[in-house]
Amino acid sequence: MTPPVPSTQTRHLLNRFSYGVTPALVQESEARGGAQNWLEWQMQPQAVSDSYADGLKAWFPYLSYTPGKMWQAHLADQRSASDLMYDFARWTILRRTYSQRQLLEVMTDFWSNLLYIPAPVDRAWPHRVPYDQVIRSHALGRFSDMLVAATTHPAMGSFLDNAESTVWKLNENLGRELLELHTVGRTSGYTEEDVVNSARILTGYRVDINDSWVAFYSPDDHYTGAVKVLGYSSANTDPDGRDVAKAYLRYLARHPATARSIARRLCVRFVGDDPSLSLLQSVAKAFKSSGTDIKQTLRAMVSHPDFAQAVGAKVRTPSEDAIATYRALDVRAIRPSRTDDFANRVTAQTDFMGQRPFDWPRPDGSPDVADAWTSAGRMLNSWSIHRSMSVGATAGADYRSRASWLPALPARFDTVVDHIARQVLACPASSALCDAASVYAAIPRGQIITTADTLTNVRMAALMSTLLNSPEHMTR
Questions:
Q1: Residue by residue, what is the 3-state secondary structure of 293-320?
Q2: Nearest-CA neighbor of 322 among 395, 394, 226?
Q3: Which of 290, 308, 326 is the last residue of a domain?
Q4: Alpha carbon of 369 to those of 275, 315, 372, 373: distances in Å?
């Protein structure tokens, strides 16, 4: 039986809001009454059963440690800071690969890249795992709530030096990046005085760095006195400035310039590298009028005609490529029992391809445009990894048998290619793709494949990697 494939638009929506279309995902969409209904269902992640993915954290027991206990494990050489954060990257990859809450995973990644904290990074790393949970819990809620929680979190304060910023020794890093990267953006017209006042508002949020790692608020360290940033102003007379800070952050979240900035990032991620003014205005309007409601903003973006016209317009980043490949190959991870485990290999593979999770060194987050990820080096590395993935070379995982991919035999080779493409790519194989697979596998298109043994491991790897190297897979 020829595997069914979704419509072009269904495949498009599922690809943009998941880490890769699979036959199971298509069936899930059909069971919900179509892709739009699937998206609405995914917008309520608490309604989506995800016990397998939820249990993956137990594979990495140190990730459940408190910040202080992580620090003690590091000092005692039980698990170094770099190994702990490597565990965090491995766990993240597994969640993105296997979670049933695909929209939540995608949006958690999106917001983590906006409100970005590398891992590992000096001082912030003990609080990095709970920071991830903060982003995850708000990823489909309101941006204003997320901005407050993320900006005042000890991980962000430690990363951008606010944890040591006081009225006596002001550090402007977080105050500046809050304006430049997280909200209104460089073109909003803020001044250096705005940056100073932004930093003053955020004083008082402290962390006991390199000791207990306890986060606390210190009224004695908070700047008091009138502050003004853009259109926000406060007398700021109370030494406990937390209410002022929260009011300031909510003001920034709802600022028109923030709406424009967030709209652009969303449209670049989910529509195209150069979004139209019409699309940007529609999305920004929805963001602002809804009170920064993320679900309403996504609905406005998806309903705009530009979204439907953007099929195949986004290049997958290396990290997305690796995860989508394992999803396409239906690889099942085995719980790690040694360093040579599946999650470890996949993390190394994303690194080799150019983008390990949370490895971007600057606070602006990794880029999401084709120019950043279409160099000859990246493409060659991806193709090399695809080949090794195709032959089941990644330890610590179960791969499907060759025979399970094939149609009823005997069958023409191009029929075999099409049959597998429908499973791996969720679309039929084009004539050009069949030609490429024929050349690479050294099997004429019209040759009759009589048994699974005709497709040796080498030829099957050539066929599979041809599909994975195709534009249909390298774009989303």
A1: EHHHHHHHHHHCHHHHCCCCCCECCHHH
A2: 394
A3: 308
A4: 11, 7, 6, 7
Range(s) of the domain holding residue 290: 256-308
Letter string b/e over residues 122-152, b meaning 16 or more CB atoms within 10 A of that residue's CB: ebbbbbbbebbebbbebbbebbbbbbbbbbb
Cα dihedral: 376, 379, 381, 383 (round 10): -140
Region of 392 please: left (phi>0), alpha (psi -120 to 50) or beta. Answer: left
* Of the residues 308, 325, 345, the one at which a domain ends: 308
**What's the domain count of the chain?**
2
The predicted pLDDT at position 207 comes to 97
Q: Could you tell me if residue 196 is inside a domain?
A: no
23 domain-assigned? no
pLDDT (0 to 100) of residue 339: 52
The first and second tokens of residue 285, run together, are 């309007």
CA distance 131 to 195: 24
> Residue ranges of the alpha helices (H) in 56-127?
67-75, 81-98, 102-114
Radius of gyration (Cα) for the chain, nearest Å? 24
- According to DSSP, residue 58 is labeled G
**Residue 319 corresponds to which tokens in the numbers above?**
């990290």
What are 141-192's pLDDT values in tens digits?
999 999 999 999 999 999 999 999 999 999 999 999 999 999 999 999 999 9
Residue 464 and residue 390 in contact, taking contact as beta carbons nearer than 8 Å: yes
**3-state class (DSSP) for residue 37:** helix
pLDDT (mean) for 426-452: 96
Looking at residue 345, its pLDDT comes to 79
| DSSP H/E element including 378 | helix 376-390
In angstroms, how far is CA 181 from the centroid of its own chain?
18
Segment 350-378, tens digit of pLDDT: 888 888 899 999 999 999 999 999 999 99
Position 433 in a domain: yes
**Residue 429 maps to a domain:** yes
